[in-house]
Amino acid sequence: MQRSRPVRTVEAVPQYRRFLSELLSFGFVGVIGTLIMILGANVMRAWLGGSPVTSVAVPTVISTLASYLLNRFWVFRHRDSDGSGREVAIFFVLNGVGLLIQVVCTGFTYYTLGLHGGVAYNASLLAGVAFGAAFRYWSYKKWVFTPAVA
């Protein structure tokens, strides 16, 4: 007599494994979004002759849209969506807050602490990215990709 394996549902997966999987997927989406922004900005500036502001703004919007789609349909696919533009609007606003956190970290290091060297700049940039990413992850789960209603 052959034994059948039980079917694993979302509820059967331990909470910490679900959290770790979600966190790693979220980080991967962040890397993809960052690459889209950096590569897009460089392509627009070097090959297409775009202005510095346009060269950053357009790829950032594209990166944010790609991040939304990847987060909605991959990372947080198990969470509800109301199907309205509300989710997208809140996502973009929260991304703006995350960007502001990054800028504040860099500005604090440069203007308040007076550290102008390359190491200080990159350390503040990394701290800003880390704090901004932590805020985004928390806020997406709280306000954008809400738990599925049972």
From TrEMBL:
Where the record annotates domain GtrA/DPMS transmembrane, the positions are: 26-145
Q: Which UniProt keywords apply?
A: Membrane, Transmembrane, Transmembrane helix
Protein topology in the membrane: Multi-pass membrane protein
Span of the signal peptide: none
**InterPro entries, per database record:** GtrA_CellWall_Glycosyl (IPR051401), GtrA_DPMS_TM (IPR007267)
Q: Which residues cross the membrane?
A: 23-44, 56-76, 88-113, 119-138
Where is the protein situated, by its record's location annotation? Membrane
* UniProt cross-references to PANTHER family, sorted A to Z: PROPHAGE BACTOPRENOL-LINKED GLUCOSE TRANSLOCASE HOMOLOG
Q: Which family does it belong to?
A: Belongs to the GtrA family.
According to UniProt, the name of this protein is GtrA/DPMS transmembrane domain-containing protein
Q: Which organism is it from?
A: Actinomadura livida
Organism classification, top ranks? Answer: Bacteria, Bacillati, Actinomycetota, Actinomycetes, Streptosporangiales
